[in-house]
């Protein structure tokens, strides 16, 4: 009879250990997320500084300003093309799905 009453206790202890392990894992994941957030924040500051310096160079040298403008136009064109390809693929996927 004593062994029968110990079984629920053992099960509860196992469950408690499993919950504790999960909580430890969650704490590790939250710590990694906080470190990632901090790294992204420092990168944002760094890229903001670089962008400011590039803008200053563009203001000083018209050739660089023209080059930056060409890069922006190319990037805008690439974004439009990529958007059109994604839209076409999505449309074909919907048509295929509806035809079945």
Keywords:
single chain, 100 residues, mainly alpha, 97% helix, flat, golgi apparatus, Golgi_SNAP_su1, protein transport, membrane, Golgi SNAP receptor complex member 1
Report the portion of residues in β strands.
Answer: under 5%
How many DSSP-defined strands? 0
SSE succession: HH
The total of helices stands at 2
Major β-sheet, in short?
none
- Any idea what the radius of gyration is? 29 Å
Q: How much is the average pLDDT?
A: 88
Query: How much helix, percentage-wise, in residues?
Result: over 70%
The assigned structural class equals mainly alpha
Terminal CA distance: 63 Å
Tell me the overall shape.
Answer: flat
Instruction: Detail the poorly predicted runs.
Output: none
Give the structure's gist in a few sentences:
This protein is an all-alpha fold and 100 residues long.
Describe what this molecule looks like in 3D.
The protein is mainly alpha-helical. Helix content is 97%, strand content 0%. It is built from 2 helices and no strands. The longest helix has 59 residues. The chain is flat, with a radius of gyration of 29 Å. The model has no long low-confidence stretch (mean pLDDT 88).
Secondary structure elements and pairings:
Blueprint: H1 2-60, H2 62-99
Helix pairs in contact: 1-2
């Amino acid at each position: 009879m004593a062994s029968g009453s110990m079984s629920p206790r053992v099960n509860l202890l196992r469950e408690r250990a499993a919950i504790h392990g999960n909580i430890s894992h969650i704490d590790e994941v939250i710590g990694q997320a906080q470190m990632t957030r901090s790294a992204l924040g420092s990168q944002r500051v760094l890229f903001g500084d670089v962008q400011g310096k590039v803008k200053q160079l563009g203001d000083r040298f018209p050739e660089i300003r023209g080059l930056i403008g060409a890069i922006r136009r190319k990037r805008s064109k690439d974004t439009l093309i990529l958007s059109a390809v994604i839209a076409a693929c999505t449309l074909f996927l919907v048509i295929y799905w509806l035809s079945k």
